Amino acid sequence: MRTTMPRTMPTSVAAVTAAALTALAGLSALILSPAHLAAAAPPTLGRCDPGAVCFWEKAGFKGARHAYELTDIDIESCVALPEGGSAQAVSNRTGRPVTAYQSAKCAETGEFNTYPGSGTWAPESPYRVRAFKVWES
After folding, report:
1. pLDDT at 44
2. Helix (H/G/I), strand (E/B), else coil: 65
3. Nearest by Cα to 88 from 62, 113, 114
């Protein structure tokens, strides 16, 4: 009669498996920790009042902010940011489309994007914004 022995893991394989599972548990706790989740959170929106278009010097709505209200600008006119200034983040709350230009003279030879007026928040422009135009709806 043939007797079969129960199969068991060799001690070294069991030890390696236990160590791997412990390491995996520690790694998952590290990856899902609140500190890591906060680091991956989207940027907080900068303050931009209704009826205004706002530009921030740095991406993520950080740095100096320049806010322009419709009452202070001419529609369809090129408005340059302060001399030597530029922006990396944009918010449009005017209710009208706003085009942001790389050129300080609103020249279309550089980069430009139009942001809808329905409450647009762009935390990072693909180029330095130096001027803008607000359009009729």
Report:
1. 77
2. strand
3. 62
Place of tokens 């009452």: 71
- The residue ranges of every structural domain in the chain are 11-41, 52-134
The CATH number assigned to the domain with range 52-134 reads: 2.60.20.10
What pLDDT was estimated at residue 3?
A: 52
Average pLDDT per run of 10 along the chain, which is 137 residues long?
A: 50 49 45 47 79 96 95 94 94 97 96 94 96 95
Tokens representing 107 are: 């020249």
Reported in sequence order, the residue ranges of 10-124 that DSSP labels E, i.e. its strands, are 52-58, 62-69, 79-80, 89-92, 98-101, 112-115, 120-122
